[in-house]
Amino acid sequence: MKKTILFMAAVVLGLCACQTTKINLESYHGMTRAYLIGQLGPPDAKEPDDKGGEIWIYQEKEVSLRPGTVVTYEQKGADKTTLRKEKRIYPPEQHVRVINTSFYIDKNGVIYDSAYGYRDIVH
């Protein structure tokens, strides 16, 4: 039961974070290219949007280190005696999240759409 509650809380927090990001990105809609540069600086990449405008992409990386763990497994027989014990050691993992924020800018230099996404990389 406790695990279910924690899982549900994590899901709700994740959805709230996505909604907040969407609202923040939508606040740029209707603003100009110059305003975007003033707020976020030059983009990390630019691509055409197939409508005569551009897609400006801002990228950031979050790097964290997940601690290593030691897990002990124990297998018991039908008579409740231990048949086998096994200890597994998992080393620490470097976790990298690459976050892309994209702004769609029309041919007049006005932001008309935005997108946010990320991918996780575990080393």
Supply the key terms.
123 residues, alpha+beta, four-stranded antiparallel beta sheet, 6 strands, 48% strand, rod-shaped, disordered N terminus
Mean pLDDT: 81
SSE sequence, one letter per element: HHEEEEEE
The DSSP helix count reads: 2
Show unreliable segments: 1-20
As for the number of domains, it is: 1
What form results from the Cα inertia axes?
rod-shaped
Report strand %: over 45%
Q: Between the first and last Cα atoms, what is the distance in angstroms?
A: 33 Å
**How much helicity do the residues have?**
25-40%
Described by strand count, sense and barrel closure, the largest sheet is: 4 strands, antiparallel
Per DSSP E runs of 2 or more residues, the count of β-strands stands at 6
Cα radius of gyration in angstroms? 23 Å
Strand order of the largest sheet: 1-2-5-6
Structural class, from secondary structure content?
A: alpha+beta
